[in-house]
Amino acid sequence: GESVGLHLPTLSVQEGDNSIINCAYSNSASDYFIWYKQESGKGPQFIIDIRSNMDKRQGQRVTVLLNKTVKHLSLQIAATQPGDSAVYFCAEKTGANNLFFGTGTRLTVIP
Amino acid sequence: SAVISQKPSRDICQRGTSLTIQCQVDSQVTMMFWYRQQPGQSLTLIATANQGSEATYESGFVIDKFPISRPNLTFSTLTVSNMSPEDSSIYLCSVDVARETQYFGPGTRLLVL
Known about the structure:
Helix content of chain A is 0%, strand content 53%. By secondary structure, chain A is an all-beta fold. Chain A is globular, with a radius of gyration of 13 Å.
């Protein structure tokens, strides 16, 4: 099966700085990727997704980058705010198969 | 997207008992999923529930332990049977929108004593 992992289990950033959360995946056939944010006591919240035919996608204050050559996915958060503190999960999907989730990175924003 | 609710939001149960978790969606969806998230861990898929057919279980999960119902396109239940402390987890349901993106409910936090 697929293997999705994250480089850093924890990340602390100063408020206002940019955050970069990384994710590695092992299945080169994966064609769809999602980033989720999970705040304490809540379910995962969809942030942004990207298909494998793209290498960059932007949302509101967030950008996802996909590097298929090295099977790497990253989530960039601009001007990080205290409300961004959460655990972030990447997930990959191959065709009609189910989502596989990475281990998660805890982002802490320091005021 | 979809709005998903779960009941109960949390519970404390005695070992050997069973708990049924409900998941309600505000729109009709074909596929619903049940995940387990153990403390400090990522999400692990338990099973996929399609209306009108038997649930499909992932490796390591069996119907006798986690029976699932899917009576219609907006509702599903997951039962955690004969519970032990190892079943203490967050149980999450999700729905598949456009056969790609999954949206999650708020979760049910279960503690088994």
